[in-house]
UniProtKB/TrEMBL annotation:
SMART domains the UniProt entry points to: LytTR, REC
Pfam families, A to Z: LytTR (PF04397), Response_reg (PF00072)
Occurrences of domain HTH LytTR-type (ranges): 147-252
Domain Response regulatory: 2-115
Source species taxonomy: Bacteria, Pseudomonadati, Bacteroidota, Chitinophagia, Chitinophagales
InterPro entries documented for this protein: CheY-like_superfamily (IPR011006), LytR-like (IPR046947), LytTR_DNA-bd_dom (IPR007492), Sig_transdc_resp-reg_receiver (IPR001789)
4-aspartylphosphate: modified positions: 55
Name of the protein described by the UniProt record: Two component transcriptional regulator, LytTR family
PROSITE patterns hit by this protein: HTH_LYTTR, RESPONSE_REGULATORY
Species assigned in the record: Chitinophaga eiseniae
Record carries keyword Metal-binding: no
This protein's UniProt keywords: Phosphoprotein
The organism's place on the tree of life at top rank: Bacteria
PANTHER family xrefs: STAGE 0 SPORULATION PROTEIN A HOMOLOG, TRANSCRIPTIONAL REGULATOR-RELATED
Amino acid sequence: MRIVIVEDEKPNATRLKNLVQDICPDAVVEAMLDTVTGSVAWFREHSHPDVVLMDIRLADGLSFDIFQQVSLECPVIFTTAYDEYAIRAFKVNSIDYLLKPIEKEDLRQALDKIRKEPVQAGPTDMVQQLLEFFKQKEVTYRTRFMLPFRDGYRTVLAEDVDFVFYNANVTHLVLKDKSHVVVTQTMDELEEQLNPVQFFRANRQHIIGVHSIDRILHSFNGKLQIRLKRDPEREVLVSKEKVPLFKQWLDK
């Protein structure tokens, strides 16, 4: 089985590759891609694999954008942080969905389904239905966090979060009063839960609030450097691929 992995979080991509090789020792992972642009280029230049494992959110946009530029003639298994109702709604035909963090047995069943039920057509039509579903789906974003505090709990409002950073396997919220609190959510989970009007995933280690930005500077290789009001010494880089999305986010 020839497999391509499209995932912009390197640890997730590596774990997924290891799971595939555990489940199918004879499988060949032909490519590990992390952007819409890179994926489109690869699929245009290579024969399509037996299956694609594809994250929905990539560094430079949604993976749905890939299907607007190239017609994939193979089944797709999406890996997603969206809720189970979306997954149930679209577990049909040439597309499957796995909820992160990916469990080995779930991946095994998805791959077995593809091997037992040959795909008659590409997934483009189903992807369009999925995209329309997410557009229509009412989204409720996180408004507060309940955190352990002394002998009880405290509440932190999402609007009081200045920015988020990830370090040494721990996710930290930096509040507008410059205090730090630790949360159990991963960066991927917070990216989904926080209102995208107010927060932007600048890179793997940082989610910044719109009011946290002090200055925006040009950096090397087309990147941008963000200087934060409450932590001016911290280096927050926006990759070249994400710069258009970042500008679009700010220019509203």
